[in-house]
Amino acid sequence: MSVPNEPAVSRMNPTIVMCQPGFYKSTLGNTECSKCPPHSFSHHEGSLFCGCEKNYFRAEGDPVAMACTRPPSAPRNVISSINETSVILDWSWPEDNGGRRDITFTVVCKRCRSAPSGGGGLNQLCEPCRSNVRFLPRAAGLQNTTVTVADLLAHTNYTFEIEAQNGVSPLAPKMRQYAAVTITTNQAGEMPQLSSSGIKACGQIIRQERT
Fold this sequence. Notes:
Layout: E1 8-9, E2 17-18, E3 23-24, E4 34-35, E5 40-41, E6 51-52, E7 76-83, E8 86-92, E9 104-116, E10 122-128, E11 134-136, E12 146-150, E13 157-165, E14 178-184, E15 196-201, E16 204-208
Antiparallel strand pairs: 1-2, 3-4, 5-6, 7-8, 8-12, 9-10, 9-13, 11-12, 13-14, 14-15, 15-16
């Protein structure tokens, strides 16, 4: 009669101990078994690694001893400060970093306008911003929570989507979230203004008014 949690023994080589479900060892031999890292599992004896739970992932290069992780939540508290045809965007770090420290931010610029719809209403049509729009310091791979966007058109509506990313974000495109802020640029001499922001996930924007 077998004893629960007693290490299994390989039939090919009785001297090699096989790991029980829930444990693994990445190399063959008489090394000790390790418990599966957080958010991972092994269902079979003799596992060389533990697979990730649903909606958790390992990036290429992550060691098998590392916990499985997920994409971060959206940035928070987005504030925009408009000065003529430029805007400074500031935001807070996401509440959930997904279990990773390699967080960066990407800002997408869209120029939006209203157009008549077939039912007599108006649709919001957006297209990527012109190539001459400048992001300072840059639009992608940001490690700080602020960016300046310059050379925008005057009296024009823009939407900026700010996404927090980590090493497993490319593996879970449906789980990615971003904060969205919509602004209207001024002409020279007008006072700076704050704009509204929202968080978008699964095709919906939750408005968050900033005052």
